[in-house]
Structures are given as structure tokens and as C-alpha cells.
Specification:
Blueprint: E1 2-3, H1 16-20, E2 25-26, H2 32-43, E3 48-50, E4 55-57, H3 60-66, E5 72-75, E6 84-88, H4 103-113, E7 117-118, E8 127-128, E9 133-134, E10 139-141, H5 145-158, H6 166-171, H7 173-185, H8 190-209, H9 213-240, H10 245-269, H11 272-275, H12 280-298, H13 301-306, H14 315-320, H15 327-339, H16 343-371
Parallel strand pairs: 1-2, 5-7
Antiparallel strand pairs: 3-6, 4-10, 5-6, 8-9
Helix pairs in contact: 5-9, 7-9, 8-9, 8-10, 9-10, 10-12, 12-16, 15-16
Length: 392
Amino acid sequence: MVDLGAEGQKPKIDPSLDGAFPIEWRQTPGDFASRLGRFLAEAGMQPVLLLDGATLPDARLHASMMAFIDSVAVLAPKEDERAAMIRLAADSLKDIHIEAADLPALAVKLLAAGTVRAYRQDEFSGFIRKLRRTIPYYLFRVESADKAAKVEKFMFWSNYKGSTDFFTRYVYPPLVWISVGPLARARVHPNTVTIFSIILALGAIPVWAIGETWSFWTGFVMAYGMSVLDSVDGKLARLTFTDSRLGNVLDHGLDMVHPPFWYLSWAYGLGLASAGWGSTLGIATTLVMVFYVIDRLILKVYPTFFRRAFHTHSKLDGRMRTFIARRNITLPMFIVGYALGFAIEAFYLIVAWQILTALYHGVRTFWIIVIDRAHLKDRRPTDVAAALKHVD
């Protein structure tokens, strides 16, 4: 139920929300206390979750608070941020005295009276598996364009993975930031961006295989376009609250599938067809593709024990992901080698780097699971990301 007050206007929302769950819009007279009082009287003996329309809460808080059986209030982590959420158990509704001007003020009074307990940050499981980092919960009160811009920047940076490669962390963000804003205002769905990046990633494969100078550079441009868009779609989804299971499957599926095909097309562009698979170039191509698959299979072992990604185990593992053989590392290695006239040598270096990466993951996984037996010690995920800076 959404109470718009006496003069509030129903906002424009995505029509799909009406089908997701029933929404009742109300325009009722009176101040905050009287309107909330009438609502609680109607609620009867049902638990309720109270939110403020001017507050942007962490979406993870809803499920966390509704899992409780008692009355709980959560305040914004920043003291100067007037934002709150309240979960009231059915048996506490009759004891509520509403003498406050808004929800944050009510939360403070109920906490002081002992009617509700505070939901602390240390109770919250802030680890996000797909981002490989721990992010504390947040609540922001958004009542101006300036504040909205600050929150957008917070949402943007908080969507970066705790452990990622050098280019994603330090090179791409400015390009991603200037792309996300216009796309969000144009209401471009993140899945559209993902599909376009898939077209670029797969389209570069036959272009590289042609083996001409123009085709290599055309493929490089397409590959870097895809690499930037690979960051854009996730940030766009978070800023516009349009994250979807399909989008995650398309995005992560592309990341896993395309690299060996890129390596194969580079090899064909360098003359694999004429050299043959028994040549040094052919053997190197086989090795890089085989060890890429082996590496991916090794990385599937760790999550079966810990339910999280390998590179969250320690800060060492998080730092290693900055340099290990991944698309955003091998692509610039090959481009530099090609530009300097050492394309084949750069390709051999990439093969060696992929083999070393697989060996590191294999040895490290064996140590963690077999020697250290960390999975039997109930260790919590290590936050491999730098400390999250709050928006000022």
C-alpha cells in the first residue's frame, strides 16, 4: 500500500510491477501520524514493513528484515542521513504510539522506547558473491537532484567487483561512467547493451581470421568496444534497478565462452591455416585453448566448498586476479605485440601466461582444500576490495 498523502500524485512506474504484486495507491488527508495510525489499525494482526518514499533502501534489506519475527528498525549507517526502515511484528502493533513527523523520527522514538530493536550492520550478511566483495547495507534519503547524482555515483562504484583485472578497475571506468548516464535516461535496457556486446565479441572472430592489417585493427576496436560494454550493462542494471537473471546468464556466459575463440581467430590470422596444427603455432593454439578450459574447470572446484568465487579467499588471491590470464589482460598484450611487429611472440607469451595461470589456480586450490582444509574451519569470505567510500 502506497500512501500519497492528501496532495501527492501517483508516479509513473514500470507497468510490469502491477503484475508482480498488488499495489494499492491511496490519497488520504492528515499528517504522517494520523495516516500511519489508520493504516496500522487496518493491518490488524499482520506484520508490516514501513518504508519512506523519499528513501532509497538497499534492496537486500527487504528480505533480511522480513525474515525476522520481532520488531526491528534499521537506520542509515551515516548519522547525518535521515533514512529508516521499520519492521513491526503483529503483536507489537497495539503498543505503537505514533507521535512523529516522519518515518525516521518514528524509528528513533521506537528505538528509544525499546518497542523495536536496532538492526546492526554486523548482523547483515553483506557479501555479494557475484561481485566478490562485501558491501555494507545503505539507506539514502533522496530529495534533490544533487543528492540523486551523489547516490548514482555511489551505486556505480559499488557495482565494481572486489577482485578484477587492471583495465576494468583503472582504465574503463571513465568510459563506462559517461556511457551509463545517457543510456539510463534513454531507458535502454541492460540486456540490449549485453546483446550488442555479444555481437561485437563474436563478430570480431571472423574479422581477425582474415589476417590482414585492417582486419586485425578492426577486430581490436570491436573487442575493446565489447570490453567496455561488458562493464556498462552491469552498472546500468544496478543504477536503473533492472538486474535480471537472463542478463546475468548472457553476460557471464559470454565472458566464459568467447576467449578461446578469440585465441583461435588470432592464430588463424597469424597463419595457422598454412602452418598447420602440427606447427609451433598450431601446438601453441591447442595448448592455450586446452589450458583455458582446464583453468575454468579448476575454478569450479573452490565454489563447491565455499559457495563463493576463488578470488575472494584472501587478499593475495584478490590481487592475483588483477594480472592473471583473462581477456582484459591478454587482449592488450596481443595488441602491443602486434603493433610492435611481434604478434606471434606475443601470442606465445599469452599461451605461457594462460598455462601459468592454470597452474597457480590448481596449486592454490589444492593447498586451500587439501592441505589447509580451510573449508572445515568455517571461514567467512574475505573482503578483497578496498574499503568502500561513503558518498559525502
